[in-house]
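Example for tutorial group B:
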């Protein structure tokens, strides 16, 4: 593994070990920068919190390609979350209503949620979800398919948001008699929730205030999609060169390739099970007291082992029969993070047999990834040497 890869891991895991805790939710979005491991092994990237302006520009995507007679004025109607389609998540009863707009216009840093469905199946959903137990660089969650159990690669996330922000819904198109748009049974849809900043004096909020659901129908002879905003009659065309890269989203591209990252200040105990041996780390972050199997250790010893526990790198996703066979396997190594905050979920990471080179990494019962067998075996050895 390249040296730069180790540097990225150390910098990010160090934030979880020694950073100031208590980055809670507020009306404004906080700024944060940290070096992190990107989707490509050996590459270091800068992960940005949503308050950071997404860097770089994108060319405007081709949207409406045919001018219609007259102009369509933008209208906005208030809608409840209960009227959303499958791609839009059900909102809590106390959540405020969002304004549905016919012609969405936003910047990348105003986006709070994107959900993509293809062929009637939800394939990707990412949302801004600040919590008291999270560091502010970890406020984004991928709900589908990773159930909020992974770290988001915010550089890739902002690339997606920039691509969506480049779509300009200008003029409607004229539909000829008998022309089949396919919009009665959409082939795909993209839901976007964002905070619409009305003026320079307006302050961004963590919660969105505006939403739209873009429905995609068939393609015309030139390969452009017929598109429509849910709740409105206007029909547009979006070029396949703009739409296909989004609709063919690969969720794996949007995660940092780290198996788990748990802020030590949210942890009460860590139990490490390696078959016949079990070890427990007691954590008292407030008093800076740590113990390995009830034996007190200094902060350096604790920090070294804790970083190692979070330093296992994701190598890929499981495929074929090996994945299903590994479901019932007893773990070679299992790490249980018991939290000290009521709203912070406990995290269990178990490594199970996959093949000669890799282990399955199971996070809270979900087998999302494979990791290097050599890396896990080395971690097990380090654990034993530390106790």
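The residue assignment follows.
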């Amino acid at each position: 593994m390249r040296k730069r890869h180790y540097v990225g891991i150390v910098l990010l895991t160090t934030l979880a070990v020694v950073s100031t805790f208590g980055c809670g939710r507020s009306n404004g979005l906080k700024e944060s920068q940290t070096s992190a491991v990107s989707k490509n092994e050996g590459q270091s990237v800068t992960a940005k919190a949503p308050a950071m302006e997404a860097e770089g520009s994108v060319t405007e995507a081709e949207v409406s390609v045919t001018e219609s007679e007259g102009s369509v004025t933008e209208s906005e109607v208030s809608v409840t979350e209960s009227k959303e389609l499958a791609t839009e998540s059900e909102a809590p009863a106390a959540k405020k209503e969002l304004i549905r707009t016919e012609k969405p216009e936003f910047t990348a840093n105003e986006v709070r949620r994107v959900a993509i469905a293809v062929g009637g199946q939800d394939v990707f959903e990412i949302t801004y979800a600040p919590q008291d137990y999270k560091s502010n660089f970890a406020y984004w969650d991928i709900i589908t398919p990773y159930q909020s159990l992974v770290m988001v690669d915010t550089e890739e996330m902002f690339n997606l948001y920039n691509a969506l922000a480049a779509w300009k819904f200008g003029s409607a198109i004229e539909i000829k008699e008998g022309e089949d748009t396919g919009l009665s049974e959409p082939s795909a849809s993209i839901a976007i929730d964002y905070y619409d900043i009305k003026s320079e004096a307006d302050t961004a909020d963590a919660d969105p205030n505006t939403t739209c659901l873009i429905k995609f129908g068939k393609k015309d002879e030139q390969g452009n999609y017929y598109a429509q905003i849910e709740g409105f009659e206007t029909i547009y065309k979006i070029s396949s060169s703009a739409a296909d890269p989004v609709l063919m989203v690969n969720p794996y591209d949007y995660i940092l390739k780290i198996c788990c990252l748990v802020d030590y200040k949210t942890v009460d105990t860590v139990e490490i099970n390696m078959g016949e041996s079990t070890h427990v780390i007691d954590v008292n972050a407030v008093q800076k007291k740590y113990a390995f199997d009830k034996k007190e250790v200094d902060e350096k010893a604790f920090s070294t082992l804790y970083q190692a526990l979070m330093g296992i790198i994701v190598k890929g996703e499981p495929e074929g029969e090996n994945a299903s066979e590994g479901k019932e396997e007893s773990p070679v190594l299992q790490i249980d993070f018991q939290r000290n905050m009521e709203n912070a979920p406990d995290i269990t990471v178990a490594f199970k047999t996959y093949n000669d080179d890799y282990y399955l990494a199971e996070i809270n019962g979900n087998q999302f990834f494979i990791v290097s067998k050599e890396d896990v075996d080395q971690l097990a050895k380090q654990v034993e040497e530390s106790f």
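The radius of gyration is 23 Å. Compare this with the pattern of hydrophobic and polar residues in the output above.
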